[in-house]
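A quick aside before the break. I want you to see a complete sequence-to-structure record at least once, exactly as it would be stored in a machine-readable document. Don't worry about memorizing anything.
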Amino acid sequence: MTASVTRTAHQVSARALTWLHTHRELGALPADTTADLGDPDSVYKPLGESALAASLVLRESAAGGTELRLARELMDFCWRQFGDGDMLYERLLRYSMMTDPLETYAPFARCGIRHEPLERLLAHTSALRSVRGAEVLPNRRLAVANAARVAGLDRGAHAYDWPGLARATWLGATPEPWLIDWMTGYCVTHTVFHLTDWGGHPAGLPDDLTAYVATWLPVWIDIWAEIEQWDLVAELMIVGCCLPEPYCAPADWERLARVQHADGLVPRDGDPVTDDPGRRFEDHQHTAVVAAIAGTLAVSRTLGGAAEQR
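That is the input. The structure line, written in tokens, reads:
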């Protein structure tokens, strides 16, 4: 069964990564883009998500040579789109309360791509009481903490209170699992992602939360698969790879492989997929990202890997 998961997960992740790489120019920033970013979620955030997927492919080093090359090229493309880091620096300089420059920078820092002026500025802004006290959702606060950890800023007097951050989330209360809804499902996944640094530190999930997630994750996956919410299904499958004892069910991987298109696109949901290339990329880029991450981590974990153990 493990070999089946490894094989299918590699197929899904390789195809999704190839699709992201092939269509990467569709996600390029418009030529007139500045650090002001009128709509950060339109192109800027998806670029950072593509870089995240590529960084985890490179971190795990469980893919074949072709996938590693595609991941490096995708990372290089995203970095160039951000002006080799200058755009992130300019954005943080103008908007010190914004956390997205740090969060966007973290995947590059994970791979050794550094921008020294940005790091100096991040060291300053991330220590400010105003920035630390910004009122955001608890799982978003974890996102910032994990980005700081990856960038080397979670230390000394400015170290984050990880147990406190975990307990402030919905998951941290181990609530009635049948009351989970679509948005809370995404919050749960990201709580796990950031506590474990995307499966690189499985022990970062407290024991009681690990037991809670291990119990209810198969149920949640089945629920959202039944209504064809493939983006959330793939995110929940990433959660399975982040557990100390990974949950990677062959049936889940076979189901995700069946809905993936031949060119590597993974549909966001059960709605029809348009033929328009730009719209296809805009609608389904995120699902390709999470499918690439899920497959990469599943291959690594089924082969016995976890970043903290290597």
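Two observations worth writing down. The radius of gyration is 18 Å. The chain has a mean pLDDT of 95. We'll return to this after the break.
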